[in-house]
Amino acid sequence: MILRSSVLILAALTSLAAPHDMGLARPDSVEIEPGDPLLRSADAKPYTARWRQWVTMPDGSRHAGINTIHDKVIVRPSGADVSDLVGPEVIVRDLLWVDTSNNTYRRVDVFDRGSLAPIRMDIRQSPHSVTHVEFDGTAVESLQVDDPTRPGSRSTANLDRLAFNWSSDGFLLGALSLDGLEELSLPTADNLTDAPGVERKVFTVVGRETIETIPFGSHDTLVVKETKAGSYWGQYWVSDRAPYIVRVQFTEPGGTVTTWELF
Fold first, then answer.
1. What residues form DSSP beta bridges with 190?
2. Which 8-state DSSP code applies to residue 151?
3. Which domain holds residue 222?
4. C-alpha distances in angstroms, 143 versus 117, 122, 133, 149?
C-alpha cells in the first residue's frame, strides 16, 4: 500500500522541470521567490521518465522499494487548454506512483512557465479521495473530497508572502543556475488543506558527480543537499539537461536511506 507520508516526501523530490546554466557564476547565497530573474524555466523542455526506489537499511542491507513513479513534464504554449484551464504559458507535471500491489497515487501540478508560481494542484490517492487546490498570488483555495456522495470540504487561506508549492524542490533546482552558488533558500507553501503556511527550505551545493543513467546516458551533476528547519532532509543530483534531476536520496532519522533513480 502506498503510504501518504511516503508519497508526500517523494513528490517533493521529483518535481522535475527546467534546465540551469552551469557556467554562469552567482552570488554565494540567495533567496529565490516566484518570478525571480535567476529562474530560467522559460527554457524548459518536456520529457517522460520513470523512477525506481531502493531502500538501504541501517545495517547496510539493500532491497528494492515497493514504488515506481511515471513522471511526465509538458510545456504548454500561451492559450493552450490544460483541462479547464486556459491562460498563460504553463508547465504541467504529471506524476503517477504505482506500488507492487498496483495501488496508485496521482498528482498533477500546473505552474506558470515564467515565474514557476503554482496555479493548480490535483491529487488523487484513491478512486474517491481527491484534493484540488487553486492558487492566486497569496490566496489559496482547496477542496477535499473523500466521499463522492457527499459535499467536499472547502477552505480558503491567505499566505503571508508569495511562495512556491511544497513539491517544487527539484523543479526549481533544475530551473536555476547553480554553478558558483553555495547556498539558496526557497519559501514553500505547505499544509495546503489543513493550515496553509510558508516555510523556508535551504539548499547547499556540496560537490560534483557524474551519474550514469540507463535511459538518459551520462550526466555531469551538481550535488545539492536540502535542509528544512535546520535538519537534513535530502539530496539531489542536478544536471543541465533533461530530465534535470537524475538521482534523489533521503536519509530518515533512524538511518534508513531511500534512493530514487531513473530506469
1. 197
2. P
3. 4-262
4. 20, 10, 6, 15
Check if the beta carbon of residue 30 is closer than 8 Å to that of residue 38: yes
The helix, strand and coil proportions of the chain, stated in percent and rounded to the nearest 5, come to: 10, 55, 40
Cα of first residue to Cα of last residue in the chain, in angstroms, is: 22
β-pairing verdict for 197-213 and 217-228: antiparallel
Considering only CA atoms, which of 223, 228, 238 is closest in space to residue 175? 238
Cell of 211: 551519474
How far are the Cα atoms of 71, 87, 190 from residue 19, in angstroms, in the given order?
16, 23, 25
Domain total of the chain: 1
Query: pLDDT, tens digit, for every residue of 201-231?
Result: 899 999 999 999 989 999 999 999 998 766 7
- Enumerate residues 6+ apart whose C-beta is below 8 A from 76: 82, 89, 90, 91, 92, 113
pTM for the full model?
Answer: 0.81
φ/ψ of 10, rounded to 5, equals: -65, -35
With cell 479521495, the residue in question is: 129
| Amino acid letter, 76 | R
Q: Would you state the cell numbers that stand for residue 81, as one nine-digit string?
A: 487548454
